[in-house]
Write a structure and sequence with these properties.
With 469 residues, this protein is of the alpha+beta class. Among the domains are: 207 residues, GAF domain (Beta-Lactamase, 2-Layer Sandwich); 103 residues. Helices cover 54% and strands 9% of the residues. The chain has 15 helices and six strands. A hairpin with a 7-residue loop joins strand 1 and strand 2. Helix 1 runs antiparallel to helix 6, helix 6 packs antiparallel against helix 14 and helix 10 runs antiparallel to helix 11. The longest helix is centred in the middle third of the chain and has 55 residues. The chain is elongated, with a radius of gyration of 43 Å. The C terminus is likely disordered.
Length: 469
């Protein structure tokens, strides 16, 4: 916008300088920009005047003028009963020039009508621009400005007024229709052509800016949806690790069968829950501590039922169970702190019972290499960095004598999820690259090269934002 205004003022100065150079009897020039329909706001762009006998031009706007920025709207300067007639209103509405060659008789001199003062000699020329050139195919749907009777103007002409040129002359040197006014009319066509070029450039700039804004908004939405999709695809790892949990449960069941005296989480959690249930009645029902005990009991029972990796279960104990027990022990004397802390330590140790490598040698009936693989894979956590271990889990489950519940179903699920999880990094990489290419202006053929399956034309050009933004 600032660039447009600067170019517009430069063009107007050039036009004024040209007119003053061509017309010796001209002493001052002003150009007003007429805004787009229907407001038709008239704004003084610049004024230039020269002293008699000098070629130097002094530029600047009058200290006070209704037409200085922000200017006057069409409703403020059009012909209206009860207020002074303005030459500006005539030039804009009629698309005709106005010449004040006899200031005493100038019926459109606002100064004369309001103050009784005679204005100098001047000629005002509208600068016309073709509707079709400015508005293109949208010219048929234009909203035309109205006169004071409510009738639209300019419907029957192929032009709009883009600017008005006002040239002041030395007294007695101006005659209506003389060569001076004809020269101004001819030069106004040149200004009209330049204004059209500026308008089109400005509209293209605004269109590009608006397109860039819409492009960025669209890409933000697309990136948000892709991020959500990638987050949702994370369930695949949860589903895979749920199958690993079945293998872990079968391994721990095998150890419980073959090795006596091992302490498992279920027994320790059962003792903790019994302690809590027996003595929590000493807490006042409805109190904060009673509510904590209820939540603690529910979390202990839930941990006893679920099958997470030892590391996740240890975090569960450290972050959920132990802090609540510490809160109860700090306020209530119902429990023996040393006894409860001993149980909590035993609980943490029991979560790693199945990971003791020395237990492998106490199990009979399976080859040693199968037992080692079983013990190792039972406690892995599949993520994007160790996808190769899915194949190891599949091979283990395929061992004919491995006592895993729902073995065929586990195999089908693992194989299906493996196919899906292997394409996630590729999808994420391509989506990120596509969005970045769109955002930073990569051409459609570059996008087609990145993701040929999408096709260059269907990705809609050059906008986007990366998943990591």
């Amino acid at each position: 916008m600032e660039k447009f205004e600067s170019l517009l003022e430069t063009s107007c100065r050039t036009m004024i300088r040209t007119i003053l150079a061509c017309l010796d009897n001209a002493k001052k020039g002003t150009i007003y920009r007429i805004g787009l329909m229907p407001e038709l706001t008239a704004v003084r762009i610049t004024s230039g005047s020269r002293e008699s006998g000098s070629e130097e031009i002094e530029w600047g706007l009058p200290a006070a003028s209704d037409y200085n920025p922000p200017g006057k709207s069409w409703e403020q300067y059009r012909d209206q009963p009860g207020r002074p007639l303005e030459a500006m209103g005539w030039c804009v509405e009629k698309q005709l020039s106005w010449t004040a060659d006899n200031p005493q008789e100038d019926e459109r001199s606002v100064r004369k009508q309001l103050l009784g003062e005679v204005e100098d000699h001047y000629h005002m020329e509208p600068v016309l621009v073709s509707k079709a050139s400015l508005y293109g195919s949208a010219a048929d749907g234009l909203c035309y400005p109205l006169d004071h009777l409510g009738n639209p103007i300019w419907q029957d002409t192929g032009y709009v007024v883009a600017a008005v040129i006002k040239i002041h002359f030395e007294p007695g040197s101006l005659n209506r229709g003389d060569s001076s006014t004809r020269a101004i009319r001819e030069l106004s066509q040149s200004l009209g052509t330049e204004l059209l070029s500026l308008y089109i450039s400005d509209m293209l700039y605004r269109a590009r800016k608006d397109f860039a804004r819409q492009r960025l908004q669209s890409c933000e939405i697309l990136a948000h949806e892709l991020r959500n999709t990638m987050v949702k695809l994370g369930f695949v790892f949860t589903a895979i690790n749920a199958q690993v949990a079945i293998i872990r449960e079968s391994w721990e069941h095998l150890l419980q069968t073959h090795v006596a005296g091992l302490e498992w989480k279920g027994a320790v959690l059962g003792t903790l829950s019994s302690e809590l249930e027996q003595k929590r009645e000493s807490l006042r029902p409805g109190s904060e501590l009673y509510a904590i005990s209820e939540t603690l009991l529910a979390e202990q029972k839930e941990l006893a039922k679920i099958s997470l990796s030892p590391y996740q279960e240890q975090d569960w104990v450290r972050n959920k169970i132990r802090p609540k027990w510490e809160r109860l022990l700090s306020v209530s004397a119902a429990w023996d702190p040393s006894e409860i802390n001993s149980l909590l330590d035993r609980l943490l140790d029991s979560l790693r019972t199945g990971m003791e490598k020395t237990l492998i040698g106490k199990v009979n009936g399976f080859p040693a290499e199968i037992l080692e693989e079983w013990a190792r894979l039972a406690y892995i956590n599949i993520n994007s960095s160790n996808l190769h271990q899915i194949d190891e889990v599949v091979r283990l489950v395929q061992y004919p004598l491995l006592p895993v519940a729902h073995k065929e179903q586990v195999l089908r699920v693992l194989k299906s999820l493996k196919s899906l999880v292997l394409i996630i990094p590729e999808v994420e990489e391509k989506a990120t690259r596509i969005l970045q290419s769109l955002r930073y202006g990569t051409w459609a053929e570059d996008i087609a090269r990145i993701a040929p399956g999408l096709g260059g034309a269907s990705v809609c050009g050059d906008s986007g934002i990366g998943l990591t933004d």
